[in-house]
Write a structure and sequence with these properties.
Layout lengths: L1 H9 L2 H7 L4 H12 L1 E17 L2 E14 L4 E15 L2 E8 L1
Length: 99
């Protein structure tokens, strides 16, 4: 989750793809959204709820997005997210994010 949050904060689609499965449409969507921002800082609010069952994990967390748009407009948005991860070769990989 830390790597995912850092990649979102950096607005770096390549880094997001290292920790999350991205299809072409999701990749294009992220590139468009990131392109409309001057900056973004993403953080986890409070303590996430984590459930691990063998090689699968579920994380329920609130993600805070502090965004400065290309227009200069600033906004903060808290989003409740459920993140599903699979363990692959001793590394956790995000396979789905629901908001």
């Amino acid at each position: 989750m830390d790597a995912y949050v850092a990649a979102l904060s950096a607005r770096d689609v390549g880094e997001v793809a290292k920790v999350r499965d991205l299809n072409a449409a999701t990749r294009a969507g992220l590139e468009k959204v990131f392109g409309g921002m001057r900056s973004q800082r993403v953080s986890i609010v409070g303590d996430p709820r984590i459930t691990i069952d063998g090689g699968r994990a579920r994380v329920e967390a609130t993600l805070r997005h502090d965004v400065e748009q290309s227009s200069g407009e600033r906004r903060q948005n808290d989003v409740s997210a459920t993140v599903i991860l699979n363990r692959v070769r001793n590394q956790w990989r995000i396979v789905r994010v629901s908001q």
